[in-house]
Amino acid sequence: QVQLVESGGGLVQAGDSLRLSCAASGRTFRSDAMGWFRQAPGKEREFVATISGSGAYTYYADSAKGRFTVSRDNAKNTVYLQVNSLKPEDTAIYYCAVGVYSTSPGTYTYWGQGTQVTVSS
User: Fold this and answer.
1) Is 106 exposed, middle or buried (0-12, 13-18, 19+ CB in 10 A)?
2) How far apart are CA 11 and CA 24, in angstroms?
3) What is the mean pLDDT of the chain?
4) What is the per-residue pLDDT for 39?
5) Rg (Cα) of the chain, in Å, rounded?
6) Distance, C-alpha 13 to centroid of its chain
7) Using an 8 Å Cβ cutoff, are 116 and 83 in contact?
8) How deeply is 114 buried, as exposed, middle or buried, from its count of CB atoms within 10 A (0-12, 13-18, 19+)?
9) End-to-end Cα separation, the chain, in angstroms
10) What is the DSSP string of 41-99?
11) Residue 82, exposed/middle/buried by CB under 10 A (0-12, 13-18, 19+)?
């Protein structure tokens, strides 16, 4: 069985940083992209960042560019999202996913349960 488990979320103040982790199990994902998406209450799930299977390529949403960094450790079957200079508008549930390198949720096959990030002003 494939399982993705996110961790690292929490309640922080504007300007603070967090490192989110997503540990995968069941099989390795060296050839698959791993992405991060987020969803606020009442809003559509939106793309945040993605990284190619090798880790050679990354792509970010405009809202994340310059503040967020996605990385992966294939030996640990884990992807990370470093989130810096957090703003209240970053408040959402953050999900990791495995699939085809893109900005669309539709190309990702496996999803984690999400981790809550709450940013107060």
Assistant:
1) exposed
2) 24
3) 97
4) 98
5) 13
6) 20
7) no
8) middle
9) 40
10) TTS--EEEEEE-TTS--EEE-TTTTTTEEEEEETTTTEEEEEE-S--GGG-EEEEEEEE
11) middle
- Confidence at 110, pLDDT banded by 50, 70, 90: very high
pLDDT tens-digit series, residues 6-62: 999 999 999 999 999 999 999 999 999 999 999 999 999 999 999 999 999 999 999
Place of tokens 């793309």: 47
Place of tokens 């540990």: 23
